[in-house]
Amino acid sequence: xxxxxxxxxxxxxxxxxxxxxxxxxxxxxxxxxxxxxxxxxxxxxxxxxxxxxxxxxxxxxxxxxxxxxxxxxxxxxxxxxxxxxxxxxxxxxxxxxxxxxxxxxxxxxxxxxxxxxxxxxxxxxxxxxxxxxxxxxxxxxxxxxxxxxxxxxxxxxxxxxxxxxxxxxxxxxxxxxxxxxxxxxxxxxxxxxxxxxxxxxxxxxxxxxxxxxxxxxxxxxxxxxxxxxxxxxxxxxxxxxxxxxxxxxxxxxxxxxxxxxxxxxxxxxxxxxxxxxxxxxxxxxxxxxxxxxxxxxxxxxxxxxxxxxxxxxxxxxxxxxxxxxxxxxxxxxxxxxxxxxxxxxxxxxxxxxxxxxxxxxxxxxxxxxxxxxxxxxxxxxxxxxxxxxxxxxxxxxxxxxxxxxxxxxxxxxxxxxxxxxxxxxxxxxxxxxxxxxxxxxxxxxxxxxxxxxxxxxxxxxxxxxxxxxxxxxxxxxxxxxxxxxxxxxxxxxxxxxxxxxxxxxxxxxxxxxxxxxxxxxxxxxxxxxxxxxxxxxxxxxxxxxxxxxxxxxxxxxxxxxxxxxxxxxxxxxxxxxxxxxxxxxxxxxxxxxxxxxxxxxxxxxxxxxxxxxxxxxxxxxxxxxxxxxxxxxxxxxxxxxxxxxxxxxxxxxxxxxxxxxxxxxxxxxxxxxxxxxxxxxxxxxxxxxxxxxxxxxxxxxxxxxxxxxxxxxxxxxxxxxxxxxxxxxxxxxxxxxxxxxx
Length: 742
Fold this sequence. Notes:
Layout: E1 38-42, E2 49-53, H1 57-66, H2 74-81, H3 87-98, H4 116-122, H5 128-134, E3 142-144, E4 150-152, H6 155-159, E5 167-173, H7 183-197, E6 202-206, H8 211-215, E7 223-224, E8 227-230, H9 232-236, H10 242-266, H11 269-276, H12 288-297, H13 309-316, E9 320-321, E10 329-331, E11 341-342, H14 347-355, E12 364-365, E13 367-369, H15 374-381, H16 385-394, E14 396-400, E15 405-407, H17 414-421, E16 428-432, E17 437-440, H18 455-465, E18 470-474, H19 482-494, E19 500-505, H20 507-513, H21 534-553, E20 558-563, H22 570-582, E21 587-591, H23 593-600, H24 602-614, H25 629-641, E22 645-648, H26 650-661, E23 692-701, E24 706-711, E25 730-731, E26 738-739
Parallel strand pairs: 5-18, 5-19, 6-17, 6-18, 10-13, 19-20, 20-21, 22-23
Antiparallel strand pairs: 1-2, 3-4, 4-16, 7-8, 8-16, 9-14, 11-12, 14-15, 16-17, 23-24, 25-26
Helix pairs in contact: 7-23, 7-24, 10-17, 11-13, 16-17, 20-21, 21-22
């Protein structure tokens, strides 16, 4: 194409500025081997140039196609190749019947990897309809949101219900530094490797990121380098509006709650009932959501006029104890000023509070970040629209003065929540840099919730790829949190089981676990993490070994992805690979997908292929539903974290007894603790021993379907630092493009 640089550049050759140039087009047979001689072939007819290594099998396969056998007219040669009896023609026909293989888009790799947004904006996105065709999605199964993103209808899952599932791969990680170790990047890099370089049908399933971290310190979550979801601006910001729908739904429920408390404080039982069931054309009726409350109360009458005064009072008055309210308002931004707010401060609310001696109306509450809302967890765990509707109705917002749970159904708002959320139940379809399909759906917190993308996205993807295809899904935080909850919570809800888990680690994080200095986001990285230190790496390998052992407790084979960084030395990486294999990992592979895209994860993809094909997964849950809440907590604490035991506060004991008396004891548990350590103390690295897990409080997300113990202080509204990411962001007024998004 007129480039002045030579077509092939030997690996390691020094160019201007001392940068190491990457080869373009050439492939080494093995790590460290010299390049084979290359030759350029130019066809006589098309004048197109083809570059081959003369010693490669690629050349041996391609030369006969470029130059048909002599004395045979080309049209005859082409006809012979397409005859029905030809094995190649039969293979091609089968491919067409199975649907096209994922698009292979070549990446133009630069030696100095540009900023993520520069790579993303330089990429050419395929029309999302074309991505849909690779999955054989029908036109009525795609709801377009512009040309580059769409929602996938759950009708596709129903249409393919009899089709076998593909292989199910979960990507987790070790306990990371605050900067993260590249799980999302590895998820996308592995997907690109399987699709673009190993010719497999593959779909990646990832969480939608919150705008809080995007404008805070961490930045976006579309992956990084040459392994990204694109367009990254859409991915990291509004996408199709799912998080906005969650925000609106959550705050509608909060408004209904405070309004109901106010009206009950200022009205009699009869007045409340008359306003809830007003006469229309001389008749009264119960709306469908009211019937749910009647069934909960055991009232079989369906004509409002037939209820006795006692039944009317029972139906109309929720009698909420404001000290038990657990439902907060949300916004999808980091805003520390909203960690404590007072509500009902307006003139009318102040008058009612004073007139009816209802000082409890003007209560102190707080905002959470939107992804911490239980509605986000409901979206992630629901298996259908009807299941989501039922879960929304079961959400508990507080308790009555008699100790009865007050739900969204009781407040009469659950149907409206489902209306706001009806489109959000459908997963969002995007693409990777190399053209592989990516389903982006849901983004629950990984501490007070389970930190995984949606059940429906995984179910749809497994049907779309079919037998011998691959679905790569990501679990948030370290494997002690994300993968444990993937197994015990998500797989319980979905009925699915993984064929393989990929545990991502870096030499940088292992140095930290080996005794290196603390790493803090927003501050310079200590120098020890950017030079060779074999001793720190060796000591820190205990952390990845523990995560390998934890995966074995679930019966899932492990592939370790050692995510290479530019300052890692081969000696450091070799130590990690050996430690992982000695600990029982089925495979341990060095991957360079950040710098080389799918090609850099090709070895990882081949390892995942081998492990899945062996079929050695013997998946099992860590605990049974019938175990008590305390037994479940202790099972996770001792087996996964390595704790000696669990200590409960007096408040936690009271809450556990309440939940078990209400029938919530059969729910799985979702431990909310730090992701930076296996213990409850984020400063304890490696594999801490001799500690006990302190349970401060226990709460229940009944709609989502789990009980979550709080370990230590857990903030659900992050704050902004002195120098957040938003300082670097702007819009190009000429092109309208986004600048500085990371």
